[in-house]
From TrEMBL:
Its EC number is 2.1.1.178. NCBIfam families: nop2p, PRK11933.1. HAMAP family: 16SrRNA_methyltr_F (MF_01579). It catalyses: cytidine(1407) in 16S rRNA + S-adenosyl-L-methionine = 5-methylcytidine(1407) in 16S rRNA + S-adenosyl-L-homocysteine + H(+). This is Ribosomal RNA small subunit methyltransferase F. Keywords: Cytoplasm, Methyltransferase, RNA-binding, rRNA processing, S-adenosyl-L-methionine, Transferase. Specifically methylates the cytosine at position 1407 (m5C1407) of 16S rRNA. Belongs to the class I-like SAM-binding methyltransferase superfamily. RsmB/NOP family. One of its GO terms (cellular component) is cytoplasm.
Amino acid sequence: MAHFNQNFLDSIERELPSHLTMDDFIAYSNKPLRLSIRVNTLKISVDSFIELMTTKGWQFDPIPWCSEGFWISNNVEIQLGNTIEHLQGLFYIQEASSMLPPTALFEGKTADITADTRVLDMASAPGSKTTQIAGLMENKGLLVANEYSASRVKVLHANISRMGVSNCALTHFDARVFGEYLFETFDSILLDAPCSGEGTIRKDPDALKNWDNNENKGIVDTQKALIESAFLALKVGGSLVYSTCALSRQENQDVCHHLKSVFGDAVEFMSLSTLFPHADKACTKEGFLHVWPQIYDSEGFFVAKINKLTAVERQQEEPRKQKNFPFTPVKAKQIAELESYFKDTFGITLPKDAEIMQRDLEYWLFPKAITPLIGKMRFQRIGIKLADALKKGYKVRHEAILALPSPSMINLNDEQAREYLMGRDISLAERIKPQGEVIVSYANVSLGVAKHLGNKLKNNLPRDLVKDKIALYP
Ligand SMILES: C[S@@+](CC[C@H](N)C(=O)[O-])C[C@H]1O[C@@H](n2cnc3c(N)ncnc32)[C@H](O)[C@@H]1O
């Protein structure tokens, strides 16, 4: 049972549109959320995923605003996060309304995404929307994912890696810096802002126990500073989506109006009333989506889409270029060697629209669109680590195997995949000629690398990814 305080209920009563009732708001806030997931199309098609999971008892109910999103039901009691399919990144457990901002950002225009497209996700962790955006970009172009909290950057990186994202650069800043460091650089920006989280009451019944409107002032000031920074970092003609899981006008509409008061006619509010069938039910007069829990039986959410019509003045000087970038481009001969290693050992063709870079003995794959940004800001991590050079040859990195498709893999059954994810070797029924490094897969999607020794597959899963428990469907 959710714990509301009277101040909160009074504020909702003031804000609730006239076609919605307080009784419904309270009833839905007390209802458990429907379980929803998003299929990771970087690894599997929606149809193949539905086919795979239907055999395991899942039932799928499409989420109208996300073609990869589904409410699911399933008769088996299982910890979804511990299933093989989750650990190998076939799906992300994500609340349905949280799938709205990336859909609004691209609004059916994913065909326009090229190797030059630059997207910024300003407040990214744990990465549900970052990985959704990377899926919509099909790993093309550049996605800069920023997160202020150091511990949450680690979770973000783990999720990006699990989902096979290769076009991402991670940064770790207070996102107020983007307007100054990367002025008018991005085609699209998502600001999924830190907020009071009032919309999440269905997940956390205590979320609003001590709600006090006066305590939101600091959050609102941050939101206003962040949206200004986002608008400065946006190219002319680009789009910005501002979203929160807060319900109050102060954290939502007022922040967007603040932006307009600062940048005037350069700011255009785009109506989201036709984003999906019945989107108008949640539309404000400005065209923003204010999703109350009872409208689509979801968490509360707010989404605004803003276009930048004209250039604005830079507010701070361009900072001096930073030196000491530790990566260097790789010579053509070495690239050819690395390409042969990937092709001959794993059947993997390295993508042509990416740059191979070197740091000491490490080889990395960078998205090409990062090049003009080097030195303008410090990046925590760019692209994916491909391999380490050994005295003779190379040693492939796990994240490369998760992100780059291969046509030749050894497919494991449920039991074998469980053994592999628990860090154990897998015995082979027949002894054959040893084959060296091989990719092992489940449902034709890679799990990682093993060494084929003839009678067994020696486990090469990185130790920090080894699990104590894997949930198998009966
Ligand atoms: C609503 S959550 C983001 C959720 C994320 N977009 C997702 O979909 O998984 C807001 C995030 O902003 C981060 N944050 C807080 N203050 C920030 C700031 N000044 N700059 C950048 N990020 C900030 C928080 O640590 C938190 O991870």
